[in-house]
Amino acid sequence: MQRSQRIGLLVAAAVVAVVAVIVLSGGDDDDSSDSNTAAQTTTTTTGGTETTTSKPPEPEVPTIVIKDGEPVGGVEEIELDKGDTLQFRVKSDEEHEIHLHGYDIEKEVAAGGQVAYKLTADIDGLFEVEIEDLKEPIAEVRINP
Fold first, then answer.
1. Looking at domain 63-144, does it have CATH number 3.40.50.1100?
2. DSSP-based three-state secondary structure for 2
3. What pLDDT does 136 receive?
4. HEC string of 42-104?
5. How far apart are CA 134 and CA 111, in angstroms?
6. For position 2, what pLDDT does the model report?
7. Does residue 25 have a pLDDT over 70?
8. Are 96 and 66 in contact (CB under 8 A)?
9. Beta bridge partners of 96
10. Domain boundaries in the chain?
11. What is the dihedral of CA 111, 114, 115, 116, to 10 degrees?
12. Largest CB tally within 10 Å, which of 67, 101, 128, 131?
């Protein structure tokens, strides 16, 4: 048997093994999936099987829209665990000071502009985000221990 024939047989055996693993593992009827797990891609090459892992998509950043001094759609509820990244945006039709209580972070948002908050949620509890000058609540942030 020539060397090229042996390589061909090895590649064919590898492909058969990969197909067998896919077929045998495909019998699981569990429909549950965890959106926080990384996706895997398997590629068969002449040298063997290569597995790469990709990151899950970034979560959508909540955007609170203020119109005429009130949050459009009501007070936004944001919940996360201690140690996670707290992230949200505020868009406003008027100039305001936006205050994240508990963390004591105040930011100015210009009329027609937006401001972004991004920080590590290192204090657990329930915190209000408000339009400071109007004392109008726009969000409630719950950080679980």
1. no
2. coil
3. 97
4. EEEECCEEEEEEECCCCCCCCEEEEECCEECCCCEEEEEECCCEEEEEEEECCCEEEEECCCC
5. 15
6. 75
7. no
8. yes
9. 109
10. 3-54, 63-144
11. 170
12. 131
Q: Is 138 exposed, middle or buried (0-12, 13-18, 19+ CB in 10 A)?
A: buried
Name the token pair of 78: 């944001």
Token representation of residue 29: 């009827």
The Cα 97–Cα 106 span in angstroms is 7
Average pLDDT, the chain: 81
Sheet hosting strand 70-71, strand order edge to edge: 70-71, 63-67, 85-92, 114-120
* Euclidean distance between CA atoms 44 and 78, whole angstroms: 43
From CA 43, how far away is CA 52, in angstroms rounded? 8
